[in-house]
Design goal:
This protein has helices at about 5-10, 20-30, 85-90, 110-120, 120-155; strands at about 30-35, 40-45, 50-55, 60-65, 70-75, 80, 95-100, 105-110. By secondary structure, it is α+β, with helices and mostly antiparallel strands. It has a single domain, classed as Jelly Rolls, CATH 2.60.120.
């Protein structure tokens, strides 16, 4: 993928819509183009968070480990970003992400992402809104799974 195409891909993502094109060009230049095949691991829950990934093409599933096993909490698609929680909070990866189709991504190193958020507060606000939305949906999904498990357990007794 050329730098121009990566820049166009970044500009199409709502998270980066308000970022100066010159800064996006620098971000695109310092990013790495990474592809994954179906079933391939993008990142694993608990691993150190060293980068965020922007999905340029394809889909991936997001799984969270629970005492009852892995639960799929989301499906990512083109223009979604994943991995920013571990970068922003300095914590291990909060979920496992697995490619479900051929996946083309732009891998943004931790420092590049932090520089962008620091220089453009509007990006930080967009990230916070995205994280809040994800937290809501993940909590809903885990509550549904927990309720189903409780009902299954009750029906067996």
């Amino acid at each position: 993928m050329t730098l121009r195409r990566e820049l166009e891909a970044l500009r199409a993502i709502p998270l980066f819509a308000k970022v100066d094109p010159t800064r996006l060009k620098l971000l695109a230049f310092t990013s790495e183009h990474v592809e994954f095949e179906p079933g391939e691991l993008v990142c694993r829950q608990g691993d150190p968070g060293d980068a965020a990934y922007i999905l340029l093409e394809g889909e991936a599933d997001v799984f969270v480990d629970t005492p009852e096993g892995q639960v799929r909490v989301a499906r990512l698609k083109k223009d979604d970003i994943v991995g920013e929680i571990a970068i922003l909070c300095g914590v291990p990866r909060t979920a496992t992400v697995v490619a479900t189709t051929h996946l083309r991504t732009l891998k943004i190193a931790k420092q590049g992402f932090l520089n962008l958020v620091t220089q453009f507060p509007e990006v930080a606000v967009e990230v916070m809104q995205e994280l809040a939305t994800r937290l809501y949906h993940t909590t809903q999904r885990l509550s549904e799974v927990s309720l189903k498990l409780a009902q299954t357990k009750t029906s067996r007794e």
